[in-house]
């Protein structure tokens, strides 16, 4: 009887060992997914205006793809001017709009306009034979692991219209690239095409400025002459006191996440970076002008739209007005000299509304030196 029990135990151990061996020999194979789709609510029509070319045109979003195996997945947003993607060129920046392991990629108006022009559209009202209305096409590619199985979403067509009129005034620009890009909604980190522009006031002016959202606790960046490569890039001289050099430079280091106002002077080779928190203040607001300790009406940065916003009750009396200012001080403030929705730095002209009521106010600093605002009655 003891021999029989011992024999049974040996058989059980042997079978268990064989089962473990079989489990170890199992090979997981990724299977192409058919659940890769955009979950963005797309507009019926995209009106593209080059004067706000750095603004968001659309944020493409999706859910995680299921390849039936636990694996890393890289998502790439691709574009074309033909619905069958016959004109798509791998590696060409025009058609490859970013890659991520996350679930969203933002596309600017400028990138959409470039696709529209590749599709044969233009915004010149005098060219009757060239339309300003058409379609461009997008798809999502998901790749398993490193150069593994690729799956594609259905092609998404977007209706686009180039706003007719004069082209945007192209100010000279520099570009801010760094470790903050992906966390801040600009695209993959340290990639020149994703760099954020800052601008000078015109040719011959070497003083550049712009606002950059850096949603990381320890931002690092460099300054690029173009958004095509790192050639000629500027960094800190190693003293971290605001001096730029081009050879042997270090990354510029900042402390704290925030919405930075960055200034670069290529004549003096210096830079500054200041966190800004924006607010509305004035006699048209419930609190009034910031005298005698009155607090500003703080705005909130919306990372999805890239704008500062506030919903607030405004009055419209003869003496009622408001302005935008940063950090509860007047060093950075904007008015609207032309009453055209374009903000003017440190301008003596206050802003007003035509009727009293509750307004959604949005301020857009994404287009350097061409900052805008809207006040929509709710």
Q: From the alpha carbons, calculate the radius of gyration and give it in angstroms.
A: 27 Å
Roughly how much helix do the residues carry, as a percent range?
under 10%
The CATH class label of the largest domain is Mainly Beta
Question: What is the overall number of helices?
Answer: 2
Amount of beta strand: 35-45%
Keywords: Signal
InterPro entries: SusE
Domain SusE outer membrane protein: 28-123
Signal peptide: 1-21
Describe the structure.
The protein is mainly beta and 378 residues long. It has 3 domains: 46-162, Immunoglobulin-like (Sandwich), CATH 2.60.40; 173-276, Immunoglobulin-like, CATH 2.60.40; 278-377, Immunoglobulin-like (Sandwich), CATH 2.60.40.3620. It is 9% helix and 35% strand. It has 2 helices and 26 strands. Strands 1, 3, 4, 6, 7 and 8 form a 6-stranded mixed β-sheet that branches. Strand 23 and strand 24 (344-345) form a beta hairpin. The longest helix is centred in the N-terminal third of the chain and has 23 residues, at 2-24. The radius of gyration is 27 Å and the shape is globular. Mean pLDDT is 86; it is low at 1-31.
Short note summarizing the structure:
Residues 1-21 form the signal peptide. With 378 residues, the chain is mostly beta strands. Helix content is 9%, strand content 35%.
